[in-house]
């Protein structure tokens, strides 16, 4: 049974409670409540459970003057006081046994809120109870039970301060994205003469920008936005880099109603700069908010796609959180009282350090700029495998063909076939290998580009001139798994860990004689990505496979181990042949490019129409290996090789 003082009859419970509250602690000693079933602790526990569940029906509640309160009203007030935190009720823990002074019991309760980002806000509160005439303990309710500084009508509110987003760094440790000048193009409604004509003129101007804006500027809602805006407002249309704005300034500057504001925005060096690999940073979108309501709020900047998306949490850091008190002002609008109950400082994000080289990336982007087909160019540093550039030509901004494409390699794969043949002693540089116009295997006829034939020539000539029929005839010497085995020595099909997704290839193995013949020159079921082919090319140049590297910090946890040294005689002969592709073969358009260029062209059929082909070129110069891919590019000499030339000429000879 609870300990209590004798209670004379008091017909007015409010007067009796008020007297007890004001005098008990002054006139009597403090006793600790017992743990009997009808003690105050049972009522406290029921109150805490009801606080969390929102149902206080099992608890008697009174105000400080002793008047009974409807439990539903108290539940509603707790929820209202909780404000923006109401959706995640606190964890409530009674600390020890209640202390009883006459008819008043006091217990300490720990209130622990879990704020966004698993932030903990904990504090202690006192809950008081009164022993009523019915021999039951009742909770004395007042707003400060929830938090000491709360009064009736107050609300807890949460303020978030975004942490400073960290940058993606280049191989020199400098931010790739920095503040760069832009011009914000807008419209002032009271200056517009004809909104339809203005939209037409702006649309034509934006479409004239080169390289083209991807995605384009959508002006469909501009008339409606202008109509709803204040007459003198600035209705923003688009922010253009200065260089893009200068292209069309003569066409838009004097259009009635147009206005222009100079500004700076965090941007990469160019619009194309490794855009698919890096991703973008944009205001939180509806699907971001729906998928992660505990992480993002309207106005947050969120990484989408590429490294920005994959490492968004690392880059964005942790938001600062402040719990404040709001109170209704005139008209009922909630306004801050100035009381700050809890604060967690924003945590800055952590940078990503990459191996990207700004000069090489700019050269790669520039080389693809004039290409109308989807295309990609990957460049690696041979000495350590560092990814220096990953460029993607026109197409959806988030599409990283450079790493993700799964396409046939065409005759660039003769580099792999040749390595396998040399390792097996099946060919030599000058050993004769016939190159007929056609070659038939199991009823399937293979031919060369433009139906050329060379007759019996040194194998190095077959390679330099890219003779398909010679390789089809040599395929049996590789055996069922020989091509795949040779590819694996160059890293193809490996388990690479670059810190982002990448396709490392799938090499044909164990197929029919016709499939083996097709696979020997990069057709059949073999699939690769430009990154995979750049890695294989670098392995030939280096003499050993080394997994391409993209991230320095954080370093990937499980990079593929380095391969064994390639056979010196085989790789020396292969390098000789790849040099002759440039000096006397299908890549001869590159022979006057400064420095010693090595390479292999490739034209890959991708459906049942021989006229439908992708174009390739793989090669190296100095310490830079690279792969060029042009989807539906036709002959490699017409598309891939010119891209390679533009790339190499933009780089200093190292």
From TrEMBL:
Domain of life: Bacteria
Residue stretches making up the NTF2-like N-terminal transpeptidase domain: 40-154
Keywords: Cell cycle, Cell division, Membrane
Penicillin-binding protein transpeptidase domain segment(s): 377-648
Primary location group: membrane
Subcellular location as annotated: Membrane
Domain Penicillin-binding protein dimerisation: 163-331
UniProt-listed InterPro entries: Beta-lactam/transpept, Beta-lactam/transpept-like, MecA_N, PBP_dimer, PBP_dimer_sf, PCN-bd_Tpept
Coiled coil (UniProt feature): none
Protein's UniProt keywords contain Plastid: no
Matches recorded under Pfam families: MecA_N, PBP_dimer, Transpeptidase
Keyword Membrane: yes
GO term, biological process aspect, one: cell division
Family designation: Belongs to the transpeptidase family.
Identification of the protein by name: Cell division protein FtsI/penicillin-binding protein 2
Organism of this sequence: Micromonospora vinacea
Lineage of source species: Bacteria, Bacillati, Actinomycetota, Actinomycetes, Micromonosporales
């Amino acid at each position: 049974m609870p300990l209590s003082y004798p209670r004379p009859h008091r017909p007015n419970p409010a007067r009796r409670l008020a007297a007890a509250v004001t005098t008990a602690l002054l006139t009597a000693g403090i006793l600790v409540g017992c743990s009997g079933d009808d003690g105050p602790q049972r009522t406290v526990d029921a109150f805490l459970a009801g606080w969390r569940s929102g149902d206080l029906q099992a608890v008697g509640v009174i105000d400080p003057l002793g008047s009974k309160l409807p439990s539903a009203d108290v539940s509603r007030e707790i929820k209202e006081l909780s404000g923006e935190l109401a959706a995640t009720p606190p964890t409530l823990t009674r600390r020890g046994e209640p202390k009883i002074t006459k008819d008043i019991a006091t217990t300490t309760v720990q209130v622990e809120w879990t704020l966004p980002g698993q932030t903990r806000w904990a504090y202690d509160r006192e809950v008081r109870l009164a022993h009523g005439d019915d021999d039951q303990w009742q909770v004395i309710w007042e707003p400060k039970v929830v938090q000491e500084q709360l009064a009736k009508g107050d609300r807890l509110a949460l303020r978030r301060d975004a942490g400073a987003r960290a940058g993606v760094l280049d191989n020199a440790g400098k931010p790739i994205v920095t503040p760069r000048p832009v011009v914000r193009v807008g419209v002032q409604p009271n200056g517009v003469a004809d909104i339809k004509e203005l939209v037409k003129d702006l649309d034509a101007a934006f479409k004239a920008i080169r390289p083209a804006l991807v995605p384009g500027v959508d002006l469909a809602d501009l008339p409606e936005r202008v109509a709803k805006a204040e007459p003198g407002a600035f209705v923003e249309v688009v922010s253009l880099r200065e260089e893009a704005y200068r292209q069309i300034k003569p066409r838009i500057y004097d259009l009635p109603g147009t206005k222009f504001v100079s500004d700076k925005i965090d941007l990469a060096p160019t619009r194309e700069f490794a855009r698919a690999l890096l991703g973008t940073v944009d205001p939180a979108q509806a699907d971001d908010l729906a998928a992660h309501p505990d992480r993002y709020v309207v106005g947050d900047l969120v990484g989408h796609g590429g490294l920005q998306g994959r490492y968004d949490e690392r880059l964005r850091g942790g938001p600062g959180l402040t719990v404040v008190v709001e109170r209704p002002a005139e008209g009922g609008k909630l306004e801050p009282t100035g009381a700050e109950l809890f604060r967690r400082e924003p945590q800055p994000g952590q940078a990503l350090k990459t191996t990207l080289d700004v000069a090489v990336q700019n050269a790669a982007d520039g080389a693809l700029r004039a290409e109308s087909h989807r295309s990609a160019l990957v460049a690696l540093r041979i000495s350590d495998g560092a990814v220096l550039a990953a460029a993607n030509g026109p197409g959806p901004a988030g599409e990283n063909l450079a790493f993700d494409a799964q396409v046939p390699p065409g005759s660039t794969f003769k580099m792999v076939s040749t390595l396998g043949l040399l390792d097996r002693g099946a060919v030599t540089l000058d050993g004769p290998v016939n190159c007929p116009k056609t070659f038939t295997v199991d009823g399937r006829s293979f031919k060369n580009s433009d139906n050329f034939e060379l007759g019996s020539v040194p194998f190095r000539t077959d390679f330099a001139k890219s003779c398909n029929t010679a390789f089809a005839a040599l395929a049996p010497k590789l055996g069922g798994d020989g091509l795949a085995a040779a590819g694996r020595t160059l890293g193809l099909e490996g388990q690479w860990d670059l810190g982002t997704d990448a396709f490392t290839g799938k090499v044909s193995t164990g197929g029919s004689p016709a499939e083996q013949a097709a696979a020997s020159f990069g057709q059949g079921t073999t699939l690769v990505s430009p990154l995979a082919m750049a890695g294989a090319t670098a392995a030939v140049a280096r003499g050993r496979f080394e997994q391409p590297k993209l991230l320095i910090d954080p370093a990937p946890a499980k990079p593929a181990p380095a391969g064994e040294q390639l056979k010196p005689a085989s790789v020396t002969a292969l390098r000789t042949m790849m040099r002759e592709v440039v000096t006397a073969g299908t890549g001869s358009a590159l022979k006057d490019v400064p420095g010693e260029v090595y390479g292999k062209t490739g034209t890959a059929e991708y459906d049942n129409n021989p006229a439908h082909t992708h174009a390739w070129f793989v090669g190296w110069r100095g310490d830079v290996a690279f792969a060029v891919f042009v989807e539906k590019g036709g002959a490699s000499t017409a598309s891939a090789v010119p891209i390679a030339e533009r790339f190499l000429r933009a780089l200093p000879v190292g």
